[in-house]
Amino acid sequence: MNIWGKIRLCPALAQRFSICKFLTNLTAPLLVMRIYLLLIFSIVIISCGTSEKPTLEKVWFYNDNLSQEEQVSNVHKYGSTSEYGFTGASFLNLRADGKFTSFFSAFDYGEWKLKDSILLLTTHNKGKLSLEIKALNKDQMVCINKGNQKLYPFNGCKNEVSSGTESPFSIANNLWRVKPNHKESDAELRTRLKNHFRWWEKYFTWAIVNKIEELDIKSTASVLDLYGNGFELKYYDYQFPEWKNIFYDTSNCWRAYEIVYYLMYKKNIDWPKTENRFEGFASAFKQLQQWMDIDPKTYLPAKESANLRPATKRLAGKIQNE
User: Fold this and answer.
1) What domain count does the chain have?
2) Do 292 and 193 share a structural domain?
């Protein structure tokens, strides 16, 4: 990084330069003043320039928006192969305390450390993933998986939240991604759906807190289809395999669809009066969480039903917060 290209003169130091110039014209020898000015420049570089230093302590989203030409160029440039199994929903969240969470092919968590240019991830079950950092700036990172030579281009965003439970990247808010080892009851399915809706609420809230202006709302697998002005229930046949695979079996996935369908049929979202779209979505998903606490006997048929169609709750990718 060219530090001279990043330098900006701090206002307080600008006043010092004016004083120095005045003193130079009066009494100070020219050589002494040049040395003094060089010292001041050093202070400017340290105090004003270091804020541009890139850091790993961010949430890194896989960049799936590269053109075919850009992908080929990267493969040749870094001597790697392309990764086709990730989407814009794939993330790596590196926390300042040395902990990480990630969602690549599945949700995982553990500890991370940097050794030279190698980012080493150690999962909670002692698995290892070594990523060689090939490029890094304040907004982007390019890594190569040392195990399979796959190229991972990432876009970085601030991961600041008031507490761990408020983070959409925390373990607590990603339990819905973990596939169960048994067939789930209606109560367990409602808990899974509630956690999924909580993830969406925290996702939009995180964007508000960190002043994110554009969000990917299409890459994350869900029972809902999100648009710029609301959402609708995604009919079972059109749901992503990534969504169906978080359930124990297809009957559990269908039952989850039924739960949301009948609630959306009977109830309406109270959309807040705000021009901030992210605030509107955060409120809507908070209401959906509350719906999961309603006694299912008041709305849910005892047996699985057929011929259900999407229910729409709109206020059409990515959406811009404007």
Assistant:
1) 3
2) yes
